[in-house]
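Entry 14. Ran structure prediction on the chain below.
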Amino acid sequence: MKVDTIIIGAGTAGRSALREVRQYTEDFLLINDGHWGTTCAAVGCMPSKALIEAANAFHTRHTFDEFGIEGAESVYANIPAVFARVRKMRDNFVEDLEATPYKMGKRAISGRAKLLGPKHLEVNGKKFEARTIILAPGSSPIIPEQWRKFEDRILTSDTIFEQTDLPKRIAVVGLGALGIEIMQALARLGIDVAGFGSGESLAGIDDSQVLAKFRPLIEKEVPLHLGAKAELEEANGVIRVTGAGGSFEADAVLVAIGRQPNISNLGLENLGVKLNDKGMPEINPHTLRIDQLSVFLVGDANGHRPLLHEASDEGSIAGRIAAPDHSDSGLCRRTGLSIVFCSPQLALVGPPLSQLDETSISSGSADFSQQARASMAQTAAGILRIHADSKTGRLVAAEMCIPSGEHIAHQLALAIEGEMTVADMLAAPFYHPVLEEGVRSALRDLAKNIDSAGGTDMSNCKPIGHDALD
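Output, structure tokens:
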């Protein structure tokens, strides 16, 4: 069977590609192996945030006394009820997505596709030929082979939300964004938790000043063992986890050491291009094209930017370039933005500090441990760091661990995307009392080192063309 375009994978990247493909043809196939609910909606962003919200709500009981509210000792977390709510919300998120095969009919195929060449593939015993193939197979949690012997006591982001209850003690191995988020949420729900990380960083924090502020905050809630790989062993019916000179006896272990692309048996070796030692082809980061073929690899599977909004953008880029009359140019990537939904929230806007030329930038900071609006909410903690070009004052990046960082990160992302300067930002309105005043504090600190920033938050009015009013 000949088809113009075939998309393999119905996750975020694949669905985004499909939207673009349908702009130029209805002669397509969408092939998906497993659930149709996307990683984000089914096992990632959405259920994890539902869990975090429950954990944070329960955690607020520790501030009741400060607010003059009594009775915190009678509040408890019903873990089965918490997870039932998470699954109910998750099911609502994926309901429409899971109906895709029924809505699309013969254009949607459930099955494992295998490439037979740059234009040919097989699924469910049937062979297809396509002008263009877009690969969006997604990724799966990594579990070291030697740990699989612990069977159902090993949890991942794909399985933890299916639990109807949780054991009393859980070790978290891997302290990237996912590990930090779920580790803190479990601890706030009253689970005895310990964290193990092979490196010294947490949740991908790049700025040493941000890390220095964040680590003691998280260690107040969870003991951390950083700087060595964790080892697991059976110990009288429990799992003993050791690493970095520490140990913890756990009833279960959440493994969050990363995800691997779902390329097993995908047939990449049949494309006729060179593969690296991990079985991956070289991918153009701008077009997502494999070599010079009409084959694209997008989303989590390529490992470039494993975030939902980036996967969506990659699907759109591939879907648009896949059009018969489109060239491999003219599609810009957005300002980088990543957020970790722990407390305080972590966020990175633009490139990390380690990728910037520190001789050409200036930085400003704001300490949120005394920020007025955050103090009212008993959430005051952390630091905001903003970086700008030393000569022009144009904003280039920011990193933070602050309350409600998700919102301030978007404010700064819009400013960087719009090529605003420190002076431009300081001329914008800031209400009182709000958390955003901390942004102004960091900008004022930054302006001290930039000549073009000016000496005032106010800007001169621009001429409007009427002499009497100018």
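The radius of gyration is 25 Å. Will compare against last week's run tomorrow.
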